[in-house]
Fold these 4 entries.
Entry 1:
Amino acid sequence: MNTAVQEIQPLVFTDSAAVKVRELINEEGNDALMLRVFISGGGCSGTGTCTVTMTANITVTATFNPAFTLTVTKAGSGDGTVTSSPSGITCGSSCSTTFDRNSSVTLSAGADSGSTFSAWSGGGCGGTGTCTVTMNGNITVKATLSKAFTDDPLSAQVTLVKAAHITELRQAINTLRSNNSLSAITFTDSTLTAGATSVQTVHIMDLRSALNGVYDALSRARPTYTDSTLTGSQTVIKKAHIQEIRSAVRGVE
């Protein structure tokens, strides 16, 4: 039994295509210019590879468009996801991609539970609505997200200091550390149980130390605190201790 093997012919990048690419590069004056290739014909479409079976003469058109990179960075003590329209960015996981020159891209930010979206910056964007940029160059946009704190603000003589206040600050500070390329901290009494774990001076000192690392990484002066030295059972944990750390967190978002 004979088995016919169908040969798949490679597509040829012609001299005229090379000339067109050179014209685009010269037009932009940028030898490092990136190009997006849109393929049509022969049953092909989009910007991926194009595979055709040569059962007849086939014409495939490749359209070259200059492209620029849009990069999203996330900052702050909270977390969430930034997506783009048209698709390409889901940050989270995919925070940088290319779009055609002069195309319009709209970014939207969604905060995770326990976080709020604070503001855009870069790319001419600001505020908390959507961010629309025109891709006339490489663009970086920053999305700042903030941790939402329980009992904010704390009221003297009214609000009790709770394990939740410490847990939230731990999460906020470790997010800040991650966003500034610092490792997460393993805190004393890693799991605090509401109604069972009492807040101790070591918990406050751990938070201050972990947050100082963020200030150091940013070459910022470290915060100053009420009762700069906390001593075991001799120092009473105050609402001011919590509120000061919250303020210091906001100071580096």
Note: Helices lie at 15-28, 163-179, 201-217, 239-250.
Entry 2:
Amino acid sequence: MIFALTYSRSVSGPLRLLLLALLSLVSIGFTPSVAQSNWQPGAGCRWSELAVPRNGRSGFRLLNSSDTGILFTNFLADDHSLTNRNLLSGSGVTAGDVDGDGLVDLYFCGLDNNNRLYRNRGNWKFEDVTASGGVACSNQYSTNAVFADVDGDGVLDLLVNALGGGTRLFLNDGKGHFRESTDQAGLRSKTGSMSMALADVDGNGTLDLYVANFRPDTIKDEPLTKFHGQIVNGRRGKRQLGQFAGIHQPFLGHAFWRCVGAWRARRVVS
């Protein structure tokens, strides 16, 4: 038996996030007929039984891109992967209802190509609305993204990580149109940001942000770099020499950003 869930705004923050995660798993591609089902009240939620066909087999069925309209492919040029193997970690995807129509939309991250936002039209049909959404994130190696209501206005905003581009914030107007607010939020950096998580860790009713950072590049991909070993104060160390010496951005550590209101963030731990 499969159930579809929606959440009440009276539900506490962590439970609300859990229910949103469940919704993202069961809601993608649902047609408007689901929204008109016989909903039953529950504790902080409502549920509706779905009619599951008795024939056929369980499991997933592959849908053609030509049918769904999702034509995204994450590209990475061979020469870029050879000069920075950190790019081989790939990129992420996030799902959420960005325009308030009750259907879960999709956002894909790209490396040598722009990110893409697909609006869910129902019945497993999607429309590319990246241009109107303003979230292409050109000219960066995007690694991860997440939809979350960071400013508490009831609509999902977008955070995007990039290798060497840090974390960027885009605020949603509720109709799937986004405005970048990275500088206003105090998030601008050049770190090799990879994964991230949000939660209200201090109980003040706002979402805080934790970002796992990595080096934007790796010295292993710079063959002209040489090392010289020496003993300093009785301890063995090494010094970088050669063409690329002195230009590496250091690993800045993972970052914890605490929301201090009107979604402005302050870096607390690194």
Note: The first helix runs from residue 13 to 27.
Entry 3:
Amino acid sequence: MNIDADGNVTPCCNWKSHNNADNPYCGNVKEQTLEQIWNGEVYRKIRRDMASGDLRESGCAKCMIIVRGEPSKFRYDEDVEAELTAREGPSSPYAKNMALLKQEVAAGAEVMEAKPTVLSVTPSYACNIRCVHCYQEPLRTKDLNQPSLFEQISDLAPVLSHISCGGGEPFLLPIWKDFIDQVDLDENPYLTFAACTNATLLTPGMVERIEKFKRVQIGISMDAGTKEVYENVRIKSKFETVDKNAERLVQITKSRPGSYVSMSMAVMRNNIEDVANFFIYSASRGATSGLSPVMAMPSDQAITCFNDPQKELPRWRAALDRAIEAVKTIDYVKHHISLDEEGVRRNYFAQIKFVRDQIPWEIEARHHIYIEGELPASLLERPTTKLDELIVIFSPAAASPAAAPLYFSKIDGARFSVFLPPGSYRIGIIKRFDWPKYNLSWQVKISANGLALFERTLGGSIQNDIINDAEPISSASAEGYAPIYAFQENTNTWVSAEAGSNVANCSYIGIRLNGEEKPPLKEVRVQWAFDYCTPVKVALQYSDDGNVWSTDAIHKPGLKDATKTFWWEAITAKSGVPHCYWRLLALANGSGHMAVGQIQFIKR
């Protein structure tokens, strides 16, 4: 069980990361007890699908561990087998629960009487340092603040195999100091203590507490192998302090079988050229190594997003090649990492390959043009400050609106600079630590000679027959119901400011086509919202200047069924000639405003 500072529960830390964002949460500890979540609907489905061997349906097929081919063994203390096979049977709470758990797993049970044995909890995102890539940066003030959760964790302590203390920085949080002080290791001598730490706050008192546990498994977020890169990524932290504390933690683990220190590196723009040094450094300290690529957020650190790919990609390729060579030459027996050197190397090669596979190398071959200029004032919703750092992101217009950005630029005032291939792009202005989101009302076109043309656009469906290279036009809109909503799936509705008798011959919604080539119209597909917000009669009209309008077709929406909501109708265009403007004008009012859930202009 993995619990975050919002109270959300997942089965593991990879459940909603690295291409798994669509996996559902299992529940929330603010609304349910751990026992209710443990046997809730999501957990039952996972068990059912896992028992049938269906990794895709279970939500685990894209797991980073599965993709990299790493083993994922049943996590428990094998020393308990002596109790389980004893003539008198298991006696400790841990052994009794483990016996029941094994039986239920073997039987493919969906509802478990056995209690969870592995718990990872992040009660707060509070941290004493700042990292350039950390998704928790905007969330530092979040605190679960659930006293009942600590009681539930304490109740589970006698049967736990593994407790992972999360943060923020776990050694900063009182909850973990209290837990370590209060846990009864005579009742459960099998409990493994684990934590992911930045290793900056390790005191002699904390070392003494940790040494009480039979097994200690510590992850140190290192993100570098050299002082310069480390302090460039992990702001307010000193390399020498962490180096000293890492050595102390390794000494604790040396005397405890099954214990280890593992150093992790979030591979990003600021440190990818230090990957080889990271493998060398972690091995020299007697620690294993783990790589995890930064993807999507923050966009200016993601290894899937570029400012100058033809400069960046060759350097990144060379850096990963150096990492392969470093892994080949490190003596893992000498550094007490493993007697199975080839096994370690296979694991590290797979990690490097996983990072390499996330990088879109194919864009290196494309022709890129240096673009610099000023963003339109109406596109910038807020000023850039040091506390509110903004970046502009770009994604090919043909890609899904949900696609991760492929290019980015920092914003200096209103100016930007980036290398882009000629073409059309969705754009978004976001804070560094915002998840990528595009302004679907805008698009930028990059010409072959390097000119950037910012245009308003519909930004709706990417179907080939739908006109998107246009901007919305409408009569006045009700507050909060902008016309752009009618051109985008799964958003709000456009509603006219006019209502009742003021709708007729006044309320309209349509498009102004961009570009020199304007396709002739085949039909208009309109999704009416409600019967009382639908005009009795409408006209499909066109214009070449936006002032003089001609009627192409008259249509009466189907209003016989008063229970209708959000239904589609098609209006066929009769004119086969291209025009600059098209609109749907109300000719006879309904009982309220004019409202459109969605509208699509279909080209011939």
Note: The chain has a mean pLDDT of 88.
Entry 4:
Amino acid sequence: MAKKRPARRREAANTAKIEYLDSSNLEFQGGLDRNEDELVSLSKKLASEEAHFGSFREPFSVPPKVDWRNHNGGDYTHEAKNQGRCQSCQSFAIVGALEARIRIVCKNPKLNINLSEANVFACAFQSFGSKCDKPQMMTPALEYLKNHGVTTTAEFPYQATNQPCRPVNTRYRIRDWRSISPVNKRKHILATKGPVPLGIRAFADFQDYKGGEIYKHPGEGSFFGHAVLIVGYDDQKACWIGKNSWGTDWGDDGYFRIAYGDPSMINPRTGQPEYPFYDMDVECPPGMQGSGGGGGAGSGEHLRPDIENTIRMARQFPILRSYILFYLCSVAIPQPPHNSEAQRVATTLRDELRKYPQYRNLVCSSLV
């Protein structure tokens, strides 16, 4: 257990209202900017998807607890890092997600991989000038990982300064990314694909979180935008499990638990998320596939975790199995009764496997 730092004097909070706070002069830095257009779009998307998603929620039932620090005996996360006095939290959250996702798709929790937040922060935001002094959005960093990739910390070490972008060997990248809205869908992504980056409203008392309990904010005061990595959830304790980027002396060795519906994650004025979760598609880099203890899923042991989970759901729910056999496997069966969500899952899987035809036979043979 890391030695806990002594308590510090809290920043005074405005208890009369909620207001945005510049974190550049605080002991702990944030750095996540807000895109009002994206938040409005997210709110509309959430209302639409919640209504649609409820019609076929059962196949997306999720386990009551997920924690990628201890998943089937393996820890797929990297220890908490420290962004220092620089508003680079978005790069730490996104790189942390990629590190974990690579271990997951490579089926090796012991994989030694330490990716460079400095590379992402310096290059994704190079047109923004003095980056350490200004909050940034997550989307440029996600686009940079998709279009360029990222190198290792050994090749591009992090310093809490305005480091210039420079050419490096960007071996690790994501295929695509997207925001995810309904809570059950967020849990489904966490359970089947791995940790996700998320923005929160960091209030003054969050900076003083010592661990050992579930963080709950009363709902008022000053805050700044901050990006963290969600590594799991616990329905029994009604909380999300997250990793911060303020070093291992903060919280529970750099981790925290935060209550479902906390004002840090939900805007109390609208009842909607303040920031979206972000999902990303990741493949195991060549030569990194391993058997480090995560374990596969029977006949689907060579498939991506999200595809494995779809197979498990199809085995459990006959209507979903029928739709997959009909749309993906061209099995001569009558078209199943109409169910829009089952049809969406089956057609999404079909479209995804067009990019990876080697998976199609594995999926179909496991369901026929």
Note: Residues 16 and 220 are 7 Å apart (CA to CA).
